[in-house]
Each structure stands twice: as C-alpha cells, then as structure tokens.
Amino acid sequence: RMTRPLSHGSRFALASLSLLGASSLLLAACGTGPIPGGSASPGAPTPSSSTSSGCSSATAQSSVTIDATNALTFSPVSVCLKAGGTVTWKNTGNITHTTTDDPSVAAVKSDAELPTGASTWNHTLPAGQSWSLTLTVPGTYKYFCIPHETLGMKGEITVVAAGSSTSAPASTPSTSTSSASCPDPQSSVTVDATNALKFQPADVCLKAGGTVTWKNTGNITHTTTDEASLAASASDAELPSGASPWNHTLAAGQSWSLTLTVPGTYKYFCIPHETLGMKGEITVVAS
Predict the structure, then answer these.
(1) DSSP notation for 146-210
(2) CB-based contacts of 18: which residues, under 8 Å, 6+ apart?
(3) Fewer Cβ atoms within 10 Å of its own Cβ: the N or the C terminal residue of the chain?
(4) Cis link prior to 201 (omega < 30° from 0)?
C-alpha cells in the first residue's frame, strides 16, 4: 500500500521532538561517564576575534546567499558583506528553521550580537522558503536558528563600510588588560562550578602570579577548559599570547587550582555545558 508523506506540520513536530530528545540526552550524560578531552591537550588554541578573518571592503560582497540545511547548519557559516548589502537565507531542506538575531529569545545571549544602532530580527524559514535582509550598519552580527541553537546552528555576518577593514590580525590574541578594567585584582580567587550550570563568579580579576581554584559544589561533573580545539564555539576560548591552554575535569566535590602568570584575558568554559552557557572569564593584570 502507499505510504502518505508526512505533512509539513508533522515534520516540524518530529524535528522538535528530536531536539528535545537530544537536549535530554545531553543533560543525562553530564553526570556520568568520562568527559571528552579530559586530559590536558598540548595544542595552543587559535586566538579569536569578534569578526570574520580577512573581511575588508576589498573582499566584501554586495549580496550573499546562506543555506539553512537539514544538517542543522548555516552554509556558509561566516560571510563578509558590504554595508547596504543583502543577505538571503534559503531553507534547502525539509525542516523548519529560523534566522534570528535577538538576544531576548536566545538560549545563550552571546549567540546573538548586533552593532550599535542595528535592529534585531527573527524570521521563520519553512521548508523551501527564502528571506532577505539588507544590513546598513557596519559591524559583527551573530545569529542562530531558534529550534537548533543548542545543536550549534549559528552563523556570523561581518558588514564593512567602503574602504575599511573590520578584521583583527589573525596572530593577535588578547593582550594585557589595564587596571582600569580590573580595579581590584586578587592574589587568589575561588570559582564555584554549580548544579545551575554556572561558574560563580563568572568574571574574576586576578594579579599576575595569582591562583584560581575551581570547586565543584554540586553533583554533576564539569570541566574547566580554555582550549579552542575542544570548544563548540572558538570564541568561548581565549588566551593571552604566551599562555598555555588547560582542560581539567571536576568530578562532584572536587577542586583544582591553576596559577596564571601572563597578563591578559582568559575565556574558558565547561565542555558538556558550554552550549548551555557555562562559561567564565578571568582578567589577569600585572602587579
């Protein structure tokens, strides 16, 4: 007998159930079993910048098309656009997606970024449909797909004005931070890794040569990790030039300490809970 194809609504419902199941499996897996990459990795992470590398007025395009795919990706994930140019998103699969740059609806606020003066957007893309947007404000736009954000469906658009370049030098990592942005550096700090999937406090200020101690105060296994090769989003890992990456597993009730001697900004995360927003930042200033 003939099998009737699933309706669009059924396909979307199945996609939503798949997302719910994937999220449940992620949370269930957090408390048991080894953490991927549990031992320190010797590779140095690639310093990240807030814009697409090599995007300038010479390389920017007047229009770009981005596919929203059944693989739960935006392709290409990063594009370079001239101010006043147009981005067109096209759903090339049979799963409903969105293109969204609005932190109020983001699971992780950092997945949504807009230049000052730019407007947020949120548009649903049913299977086979397209939608276009003209961007006039130069800067970095980070956007995502609402139902698939936590599965990594995110993208970035760099918009440049004529005759300008917004890319940072690829070899320039974070540099020394002034005491003005870190007014009360401590010789030692303790950061709790909690059952609420947070590092508390999320931001700390440390003297060069000072020690950070992470303590798992809950019953869920976490990591403290500053290693770009292990990050879901490379911008979640940042190190000053000359600093070494780290990756340490924190079982329930355990603590681990690290001495940081190189001034600058360190951004780190918990491997199993990175996409759920478990990230932290350490600012180290010279004495």
Answers:
(1) GGGGGGT-EEEEEEE-TT-B-PPPTT--B-PPPTTTSSS-EEEEEEEE-TTS-EESSEEEEEEEE
(2) none
(3) N
(4) yes
- If DSSP codes are grouped into helix, strand and coil, which group holds residue 13? helix
Tokens 């005491």, located at residue? 179
- Euclidean distance between CA atoms 177 and 165, whole angstroms: 24
Residue where the block lists tokens 């649903």: 124
Question: Is the pTM here over 0.85, yes or no?
Answer: no
The model's pLDDT over 75-131, given as tens digits with 9 standing for 90+, comes to 999 999 999 999 999 999 999 999 999 999 999 989 999 999 899 999 999 999 999
User: Rounded to whole angstroms, what are the CA distances from 72 to 113, 144, 146?
Assistant: 20, 10, 11
Show Cβ contacts of residue 190 under 8 Å, excluding neighbours closer than 6 positions.
212, 213, 214, 215
d(CA 259, CA 5): 60
